[in-house]
Amino acid sequence: MADEEALLKQFAAQFAHGPNDADDTDAAAAAQHANNPKNQAATNAEQSSTSFDTQQFLNGLDAIFDRHAAATEAGPYLEQAMVDAENAGDEAGLLTVLNETMGFYRSQGRHKDNQWIVQRALELAARMGLTTGTSEAWATTLINCATAMRAAKQYDQAEDLYHQAQDVCRHSLAPTDRRLAALHNNLSMLYSETNRPDKAELELREALRIIEASSVNPDEDIDVASSHTNLALTLLTEHKLEGAHWHAAKALDIYKTGHLEHSAHYASALAGYAQVCFAEKRYADAVAGYRHALDVIEECYGKDTDYWRITEDNLRQAESQAQAAGIDIVPNDTTDATTASAQEATNAGTSRQNSTDAPVMPTALVSDSAATATSVVGISGLKLARAFWTQVGKPMIAAKYPQYVARIAVGLVGHGSECYGFDDAYSQDHDFGPRFCLWLSDEDYTAIGEQLQTDYDALPRDFSIDAQGHAVFSTNTSAIATDHGTPSPATPRAQGANRRDGVFRIGDFFESITGYRTAPAQTSPHEWLMLDEATLAAATNGEVFADPTGQFSKTRQGFKDMPDDVRLALISKRLGMIAQAGQYNLPRSLKRGDGAAAWLSIHEFVNAASSLVFLINVPMVAGYLPYYKWQFAALRKLSKSMFALLPDVAEQLESVMRLSSAACYGGAGFGEGGKGSAPAIDQINGIVEHIAAEIVKELQREHLTTSTETFLEWQRPYIEDHIASDDPVLKSL
User: Fold this and answer.
1) Does one domain contain both 69 and 168?
2) Pair 295, 255: CB distance under 8 Å
3) Least confident span in 306-310, 467-471, 629-633
4) Which of 318, 334, 369 is the last residue of a domain?
5) Share of the chain above pLDDT 90, in %
6) C-alpha distances in Å from residue 561, one per residue of 324, 538, 624
7) Where is this region: Disordered (predicted)?
């Protein structure tokens, strides 16, 4: 499939960044996997009368995009292909379809629908055994899932998936493979949307370098053009107008030289150039660019898309500014002026004035937050840690350990509220301050570990960050600073052998949390079952700021990759506890008037249901349920996610807990005219049964059960039928 043909359907990615999204290669990668003789389903499909033809599917999808019929035909086509691939038992073919569907749904702004596709793709990849390898199919699936998460503004999950993809790509792709450029491009978008423009710019320049190096003719290459547009928009957020204008104009020049004006991606270049013109107060040129972009969007995708709506809104803002400035705008102005103006700017080179008083940009085409984000860095532990590393720790490493710069992993992971991102002003009264972890291989730790720890300890600790994210610290090295420089006392539990920051061997770090230097083998379910979820949450939380070799991230990721058989076994256990504690013992204890037993039954029911929500959402995507203090903070955060499964359970569980006092200890009629515990008991029992019914619906949707029984103990055999291993530790008695 030619790059240009494949790219036509990928304009969806995130508007201007389209051609560098990984989706244009996902189909090919998945198709390649389908031809792998190790894939039993694909091999059998060749001999089956109901086989699924992956290449025929891709050709049909290409044809839909070629005739610009995606708006009405692509959705039904993809949905039918999913059914066909599943009926044929072709897992590789189904993965190809899911990858294509993610890209299309994203293009249509169907983020809610996409949640099922992302979840299904990750589960399918795990079932196929891809998650433990370095296949291209796994890499591209990770990138697609991450990009879907990013488009839905689920940034933490997206960044984690992108970093997983990076680790896979290091081993599976050549240095000039354009999918590496796609990954750098997608990461740049995430950094832009999370107010890290400096990192976004670096990722985009690397993407552009890879694409130009792999191009036969960079002056006529659509991917090169899109990379210039992406870079222009990022430079615009950094107020680097001269560079932004040059790259935006260069993109249009490539489209003209290569006669690529009929490509769907041409709209992104036009709109990107228009946005630069708007920032330069050249409103007439901005209006012309936006109008031309709308024409291309309407032709290729119709008006009922996010891209049309965002661009139309930008056009209205440009027209309004032009009117306010007294500039006459001709209705339906021709678009030749845009191309001509761009060509003039390209020829002019760097002579364009770098304006420093550009107005606030309109809503960004690439991302809403890229245009509106501020540079304010809040005093959360993770942000403080990142700033402390960037502005204090990193320069020290570069000066004293230059030969190890490309070997040291840095971040903040492990114990402490800030590692979960749930810290607040109350968290700053102890063990709070600028800190980070430095993770070394065994060999490097032997060489420099002790000295590096000494140098880390000597870093100035009276450090905070101002509204611009800049370091503010004194020479006092003994105090741990809060946002106002007030010392925060360090408790014994965070010192000595239990220290939470500083220099570690990678294996020692994970062993101190889990008891394991690396995650248990996928074939050792008994070891996985010995690790409780709170322990796994502590080993996989936080953020990794740098990991040049990928060794730390790979080890960390191993603990997130819970074997699916183990996950199913735990789901079965949680169903059993929900049934026993919530559906059986709770109402019986309340009838007996045993408030203490009822209270403890509620406790067990709430814990089991909370755990089940995370397990259903898959640890690879959602992480693990943390320890009790942050259990509901994590549950609320997950439930607000666009892709969350069982999103209403958190609120329902909190209602149960609010009612528990009256239900367990309200008596027959407390207070004058009181109704006693009866109303609260009725409400709790109703909520418990409602949660059980919602769980059954979700199990059915995931094809884990065919039963409608809402007493969840009876659902356990259906779940355990999907456990592939014969190990008795995974099965209930």
Assistant:
1) yes
2) no
3) 467-471
4) 369
5) 33
6) 57, 14, 11
7) 17-51, 337-358
For residue 118, which of 94, 97, 140, 98 has the smallest C-alpha distance?
Answer: 98
Q: What is the mean pLDDT of residues 380-385?
A: 84
Helices (H), 325-359: 336-348
Report which DSSP code applies to 439: E
Count of helix runs (H) and strand runs (E) in the chain: 34, 6
pLDDT tens-digit profile of 168-223?
Answer: 887 777 787 887 888 888 888 888 888 888 888 898 998 889 888 888 788 888 88
Domain range for 10: 1-196
Q: Count CB atoms within 10 A of the CB of residue 52.
A: 26
| Nearest alpha carbon to residue 124 among 145, 104, 105, 109 | 145
Residue 208 counted as domain residue: no
Residue with tokens 């320069």: 395
Q: Are strands 409-412 and 437-440 parallel, antiparallel or unpaired?
A: antiparallel
347 with 409, same domain? no
Number of domains in the chain: 4
Task: Judge whether 538 and 469 are in contact, CB under 8 Å.
Answer: no
Count Cα atoms within 13 angstroms, Cβ side, for 319: 14
| Domain-embedded: residue 202 | no
> If you count them, how many residues does the chain have?
733
Q: What is the pLDDT of residue 343?
A: 43
In the beta sheet, which residues pair with residue 409? 439
Are 58 and 31 within 8 A, CB to CB?
yes
- Rounded to whole angstroms, the Cα distance separating 372 from 380 reads 21
- Has residue 411 got a pLDDT over 60? yes
> Mean pLDDT throughout 564-587?
97
State if pTM tops 0.70: no
